[in-house]
Amino acid sequence: xxxxxxxxxxxxxxxxxxxxxxxxxxxxxxxAEDMFDTMHKxxxxxxxxxxxxxxxxxxxIDLYDGESKFALINPEIVSLEGNIVEVEEGCLSYPxxxxxxxxxxxxxxxxxxxxxxxxxxxxxxLLAQALQHEIDHLNGETFKEKIIPGTFExxxxxxx
Length: 160
Ligand code: NI
Description:
This protein is of the alpha+beta class and 160 residues long.
């Protein structure tokens, strides 16, 4: 296992568009493992390749509920459904920053898993939110630009 360096606010790579993955080789599998390790170290719910400096279309998600933990290769939004809701969000590339953004309640995503199988996911609630957030990263978009004015907050842990 390995923790990779997180790319943070101000790093231009966060605005770049990630490239499609054609072959899921050992390098991609190792990348996915490292992304899980890095996300878990910082208690994140999701992480995109670009956030560890790799401009490839891969995301990992873990909602810590025992079931919603997976890596997706080349995820694409097939449809956005339900109401648009205002939800609180943060991002490992923007430490201590939070704000409300607008997300669809439900999303359908197609992707491949790490074995190259085509998968389709229908998600709602927090999982739908996390998928929209991470897929945005692959398109060079971050939650920071989507924060609803007046809802931005910086919340630092108490100094030890
Ligand atoms: Ni993020």
